[in-house]
Amino acid sequence: MTLLTEVLERPLDGGYAEAARRKAAGQPPVKAGRWALVAAAAVILGLGVTASVRTLRSPGEADQRARQALERNAVEAQSRLLALAERTNQLAGEVEALENQALSLTDPAAAAEARALAVAVGAIGAAGPGLEISIQEDAQAVAAGADEARIRAGDLRILVGALWQAGAEAVAVGEVRLASTTAIRDVGDQIQVGFESLGTPYVIRAIGPVEDLEIGLALGRAADRISLLSGYLGAAVQIRPVERLELPASAEVAGLEYIDLVGGGEAP
């Protein structure tokens, strides 16, 4: 009720009442210069607050040094990880060679069959003639923010599937050898094969009968996808036969732990 009474009895702003009182008392009105000083003080105060906020938000020299140290540590750790992975692959190859040598001495036929199966599942490296497909997306369109110009994991999956169907015996995307469990997926704006992020250009290498592989890419969904990539998306797609491709072993191939082989065989 006090607020309602105040509004009904004194509807004018206090500034009007003060101006009327000064006029009735014969006092001069408040000069404009006074208001100018108030406005100038407000501007100065606002600039000071803005400068303080910017100073607090900008990282200090110690923070920048810490960030640079973390970045260096991350790069060094990545380099060590790559070196260890390469060493692991090397040792795995040596162990495989020793196992094959020992098996060859006792059962040459079983050794040959085991080696063929190991190549087929990606457990060891493979070499032979085949095709190499290179896809470079339109860098200018991507830099301009055209997401539709990006190459997606689905594009690579279609091409890989066509190569398998055409008789490819071994396939690698980037430097990753594909096994039955290898996933090709989108992670943000990047494509990952297994757990490795790919960089452009995207390269697919397949070992197999060259003519059959070329025909497989020229038919069906693969042909439509290549036409879409090179036409509408503006990507540069190159397909070339290679006399000898060398593909690494897959890092995802492991021994069987829960499967009993039919026919009296033993799980590796």
Q: How would you describe the overall organization of this protein?
A:
By secondary structure, the chain is an alpha+beta fold. It has 3 domains: 11-57; 69-124; 127-249, Protein of unknown function DUF881 (Alpha-Beta Plaits, 2-Layer Sandwich), CATH 3.30.70. The chain is 53% helix and 17% strand. It is built from 9 helices and 8 strands. The chain has a 5-stranded antiparallel β-sheet with strand order 3-2-7-1-8. The protein has a 3-stranded antiparallel β-sheet with strand order 4-5-6, covered by helices on one side. A hairpin with a 2-residue loop joins β5 and β6. α4 (61-106) packs antiparallel against α5 and α7 packs antiparallel against α9 (220-230). The longest helix has 46 residues, at 61-106. The N and C termini lie far apart (90 Å).
Q: How would you characterize the largest beta sheet?
A: 5 strands, antiparallel
Average pLDDT taken over every residue: 79
Task: Please give the share of residues in helix.
Answer: 40-55%
Into which percentage range does the β-strand content fall?
A: 15-25%
CATH architecture designation of the largest domain: 2-Layer Sandwich
Q: In terms of structural class, how would the helical and strand content be classed?
A: alpha+beta
Distance between the termini: 90 Å
Find the CATH superfamily of the largest domain: Protein of unknown function DUF881
H and E order: HHHHHEHHEEEEEEHHE
Strand order of the largest sheet: 3-2-7-1-8
Query: So what's the overall shape?
Result: elongated
The level 1 CATH classification of the largest domain is Alpha Beta
Low-confidence stretches: 264-268
Rg value? 36 Å
